[in-house]
Amino acid sequence: MRVRKAVIPAAGLGTRFLPATKAQPKEMLPIVDKPTLQFIIEEAVASGIEEILIITGRNKSSIENHFDKSVELEMELEKAGKDDLLEEVRKISDLVNIHYIRQKEPRGLGHAIHCAKSFIANEPFAVLLGDDIVQNDGKPCLKQMIEAYDEYKTTILGVQEVPDGDVDKYGIVDGKHIEDRIYKVKNLVEMNILVRQSRSSGVA
Q: Could you tell me what percent of the chain has a pLDDT over 90?
């Protein structure tokens, strides 16, 4: 069964980014002229994802508003002859089929993903963190991970090396090299799951 669904936990309070996130979700902080979350959803779409569930919380309505159709704005842009902007705005609401569910209390990443249980059913799915962008000018990172999942049929984590002095800031894995850039995880601390199979307990 191929990976066609993705879950994006976006219910956190964003305390690391205060005061910028006091009234604005961290996922909506812009990188130049585009919200962080839009980059992540565009990567998911480019990787073949067809449906996305965003786990939200209080004060996150701007996320839904951004990816919804804005009739009034489109009418104003059309009236002003700003066709390029009009096309850009319309593309945002047509990116992909997006669903929303609210995590009613902050109980962590694992609980947020558990909130997606009925959306996922027994399908394999991707988990994309709403404030984590991986830049790749070639094949999207998520696409590479999905291809690894298709080959190994087990949970896939995306990891990267960090300096020794920064290991306390990240989830850390101890892995055994299998081939190319594939490692079997032997041990880990603070796991961030990016692709998993709902019934699998193996990790590659």
A: 47
Number of other residues whose CB lies within 10 A of the CB of residue 53:
22
| pLDDT tens profile 121-133 | 989 999 998 777 8
- The domain that holds 127 is classified in CATH as 3.90.550.10
Q: Residue 131's closest CA among 11, 57, 36? A: 36
Which whole-number Å values give the CA distances from 89 to 38, 83, 138, 192, in the listed order? Answer: 12, 10, 25, 32
Does residue 163 fall inside a structural domain? no
Residue 69's CB is within 10 A of a number of other CB atoms, namely 11
pTM over 0.85: no
Radius of gyration of the chain (CA): 18
